[in-house]
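Section 3.1 - Work completed
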Amino acid sequence: MLLIYPPVAKPTEPPPGIALLAGALQGQNCPVEIIDANIEGLEYLINKPALQDDTWTKRAKKNACAHLNSLRDNRTYLNPARYQRCIADLNRALNQTTERATISVSNYVDGEFSSVSSHDLLAAAAAPEKNPFYDYFSPRLQQALSSSRHEHIGFSLNYLSQAVVTFAMIGHVRRIAPQITIVLGGGLITSWMRHPNWSNPFAALVDRCIDGPGERALLNHCGIAVNHSTALADYSQLPLERYWSPSLILPYAASRGCYWNRCSFCPERAEQNRYTSAGANQNLDELHQLCQRWQPGLVHLLDNAISPALLDGLIQRPLGVNWYGFARVNERLTDLDYCRALKKAGCVLLKLGIESGDDQVLAQMEKGVTSALTEKVLTTLKQAGLATYVYLLFGTPGETPQAAEHTLTFIRRNHAAVTFLNLAIFNLPTNSSDAQQLALRPFYQGDLSLYSDFEHPYGWNRGDVRRFLEKTFKKDPAIAAILRRDPPQMTSNHAPFFVEGC
């Protein structure tokens, strides 16, 4: 089995999905090879000659190798201006290698093929030579397939930014090795397959699409009958020294779904993703084993919300390694001693989906919290010395312009306790309960679009929201200061390295 993680995704840490699949396959004595085509492909394009020879492009290409080394150096994160220059130059080096796509260190937008159109994705597969990564993946796939007797090849498709390149690679595999079985899985495929209108448009190209966790499905596909897999992720075939971070970030998912699972706006709820976890004790056993084996400098907990039981367990059985991840706002985070215990146990940053500073909006979202509780949590985390990465969501069906102003006031009032800030405009999942009650209109043109635009009940439409954010919210001096701290492109993936003590 050959497993591939395609471009483009943030290359800050090894991909956890294919590492977990590799561990499961090898645990059943099934030979497996892994290719992180994302890190390889991005670095290939960065070093490829540019289409233009203007001063900025020449400088970016000349310094590309030094910039990559800088992102692997802790000292760079002490100098935000230097960090920003590295990212800007790397983006320039990538984007000046092609005229047919917009490429950055975290995104890919094709100029011809849409990521949410099955027709376009099939067209990308039919013409792989058009893809900007073709000069990389053509010889790379040829080498991998000729050096081993692979019977199956699996692609891990998680983000829209990977879709067009993934299908171009699949199309090339079909040309050079038509006998190989192609399996397609990952987060984006799961979301597509769980949409009520799904009717597999890729049946003639892909032999099997996998919905949800892939370990058991992939083993069964290879003829190995198992009911469940408890194997640890295996990162041994991944280029751990090449990821764009100052130390190895170990990604780990202790659960799937969300233990709250009530937020009305959430895709997890719309897709009816059931919450599952092996339990805090097993999670901690696995984390300790993984940390001992791979010696990371930072652990990234991938859960939609780290469970209270796991947070308690991390306090009781510290990893000896710094860690960060998403947590739900809750009463326990108002306990100063508890938050100090989290910090002592290695927590450097908590990501918080606050969404709004207006209580009516929070109630309509079914967040299960109030703005007063959130304010107390922010204050306590600040007192405990923990950094926060706060996520806000504007333009939800229950929000009015006045409610958005309340959120502005809330963040301004608590600006000292907000380390980083992410602003998003609400995208309505097409299969959510809210979608049944709103007048819908197209958002992305394509049969694979997971979201829809809508006529806002209060006339607070996307254009109005965007103008408010650009002309009012971001212009507030206290908020602007927070936004300037956000690591460009890499955002929360690099944010912990800007926190003292990480």
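Second construct:
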Amino acid sequence: MEPVERHAHAPDARFDGGDLDCGGGLLLLIRRHIDPLNAGGLLEILSTDSTVEVELPAWCRLTGNALVSWTRDGTRRSFLISKGPYVERAPAPVESGVEERAPVAVTVPESLPSPASAPEIPPLSVMGVGSWPRPRWMLQAMHDHLEGRLGEADFHTTADDAVRLCLDAQARAGVDVVTDGEQRRDSYASFAGGRLDNCQLIPLDDLAAMVDHAEAFERELRALDVPAAEVRHPVAYGRLGRSRPLAVHELDFARAVAERPVKVALPGPYLLTRTMWLDCLTDRPYETREELAGDVVRVLREELHHLLAADAAIVQLDEPVLTEVVFGSAHRTRSFMCGALSERLEAGPELDFAVELLNAATAGLPEERLGLHVCRGNWTRDESLALAGDYRPLLDALGRVDAGVLFLELCTERAGEAEVLRAIPDRKRIGAGVVNPKVDAVEPVEDIRRRIARAVDLFGRERVLLTPDCGFATFADNPVASARVAEAKLRAMVDARDAFRTG
């Protein structure tokens, strides 16, 4: 498209991107300004970087947006793009003035609170892993909120209703420990990027215009069960900070409503570091992955202190990508694993790095209230695409992590022979997966009872807690089970546990 003398239409929003290129932060600003617009809304982008003339039209084609027109005056360029396909409108004068970019202020927290007391979790307690299917109206509210069309207060009012439904379902099933179902989160991990300072959630397909090898990147995204445009990825554009909680507000509401102890899940520090360290980006706010990891550990440590001070019964750190480290195909250089896009590295050093980060985040906190969840990916219902292999390569790392509960996927055949887990130190409790959330059929109570008996034989009655293999809706737009099936599976777990106790 050739430049025009002036745009024929007035924009609905505009900003000045200065000399940023598409790989150096401009796309983050575009996403921030275009998301709140309605379909067909017009965004004007000012730029002095010459490469944007080529990269911005390519981004528009990739994401389904439309370049309406552009102008050039010396080194100053103005681009008018439509959110989605362009809808013809009457010409109008362009307003003057542009919105200046302003850095996000990072606040430094005061001294961290100490853990408060919490109810003891008895052996053979039944609980979910974390996520729960969202109602359709909750999904709509989530997208409206992410794209700036629904304010914070209205979003949380809607989410409160979804959490009540989730808690009611768990109560009907008879579980001993509840979660809020992660109803406020777009996914189990990426949500953190929307709440941390200097971090932004952008659709995965946006990243294709920001990486070195776009074609290979796009091929990887086609493996997703849900369109890449609907999966958002956290990208840091400055130093991370925690000026608002990640999940304490979720815990506060759940505790006010639920009559049972509450478990909260957080993405682990290794997962967040792997997710946010995009070595393929042409411009990054951190020089090294270790530098980023230091800030990830700091913000998670702050959150852990506040959650335990607010009476979280268990805080579970999710690190499913650990299985990708040991089971991922050796010939692949990059992978998509539960939302973590990153370069594949050697297993030994990576496991050491993960243990170091986990123990730094949890140092000095009560191990009995800290959990680590490890699975093989919950981003597709196709079991043949998920990773397989027993826990043997992870045993050393699992033994060294300062978490008192290990929530492990044990029901699916992909988990391999559970006998190898006898090597886990006796001081650790085992959250044993005894139902498969990816299978619609509710497992017979007798089958679940036998799995419980096997777990007790392996670990001892006092060490066993009972869970599904993974969450029921790791990604909000791509649940692996319905709410009806999820409740029925938890009810079957409770019935099987009771049968085991009386048998």
